[in-house]
Amino acid sequence: xxxxITIENxxxxxxxFIDDQQLTDExxxxxxxxxxxxxxxxxxxxxxxxTKNLFQSKIKPVELPLTTFVKIxxxxxxxxxxxxxxxxxxxxQSSFAHEVHYNLPFLVYLxxxxxxxxxxxxxTVPAYSFAILFIVILAxxxxxxxxxxxxxxxxxxxxxxxxxxxxxxxNNFHKILAGEMSPQMNSTDENAVCSYLKNGTRFDAFVPCxxxxxxxxxxxxxxxxxxxxxxxxxxxxDVIYIYETHISxxxxxxxxxxxxxxxxxxxxxxxxxxxxxxxxxxxxxxxKDSILCASVSKLSKQRLYNTLASLK
Amino acid sequence: xxxxxNYALRMTGDQLDADDLLQDTYMRxxxxxxxxxxxxNCKAWLFRIMKNCYINKYRKNKKEPAKVDYEDVQNFYxxxxxxxxxxxxxxxxxxxxxLDDDLMNALNSLQDDYKTVVILCDLxxxxxxxxxxxxxxxxxxxxxxxxxxxxxxxxxxxDYARSRGYQIETGT
Lengths: 312, 172
Known about the structure:
The structure holds 2 protein chains of 2 kinds. Chain A is an alpha+beta fold.
């Protein structure tokens, strides 16, 4: 630094010396000499060092809470999703504009499609021949597929333990269908149901407004010390059930969520699987802030996804 | 994210506020990522966003010490600069009898600029160079604020101990 270090100007050099920052070897040596030979400088050094060490030892870094990480991850995902949707809409509109401007008469387009030829080494074949070949292959494969074999069931549901969120959600859905489990609060008002659940579960249950669905009501209970919320909707004759628990229940091992499912939710924003059991139920799971949600229904994968996909 | 979270927690003093501040930071970072210069320090960039979010949202609503005039802090430091406490007194009478709350109160009472460098250096272990990049200020300023911040903390903790009846001598 070029400045001669003396007792008068040593204060900030002591700070650098304590942190081992920004001092040359000569400057460090000079500071060390002053600390050893001057009582006041020595006291300044020791008191500042004590102060630094005290705070370092008493105030430890805090681990980032999982709920915070999930919340931020979901917020950024939602932002990304919104941007992508907007881009998609812009592209669709521009494609439409392009199509309107450059649209060929349909018959002309069809003729071009049929008559275009593709050269394969020595042979030139019409482009549509590939499509025909593909259809033939599919039909042939269909003859050899064992139609009696049912699609594999979800292993996390079929072999999960009683603590599994997935197993509980599917079992509760069947209890609802069988009339063994019914809402304690019957209401079509999302806000009222939300307040009811908040009082009972002490977490902010998520009670969405689902398109083309009617909210029937909700109930709550406790499992392994963990509060659970249960919300029921109908869509025509179909029932949609949503099971909710605070994410800390997984963190504390009071409930279980398989790691691959958690990873998929984090990667894709949701987990979706049909044919989870022999009754062909569909299961969809996602995080909403600090809440883990699991929805079960007999709706098809596509229909359940469409119903729940517009959630914020 | 852990570094940013800890900084947010120490500055706001509240976990919910820290969560919100961290979320605001990442949302702004995403929205303005096109302004980030490739090849520069992304951590420092995120930190500056957080600092600005904190100033815009939280400092306005907070009471002392954020609103303390910088000159007042300077005058206070000048008045205590020459005081020297016996290290043995400091260790045995002051520091060993303090509660964690006293430490947090002392830290929270620092003016934001001093508090920031103390948090980043003493609690997060960053170098002066990194801190200077985060704060976009000279390294000398970092060192100066750090020295003064520690001195003010020492003074406050000594005063806490005195208020509890401990006799602590200071010389000049």
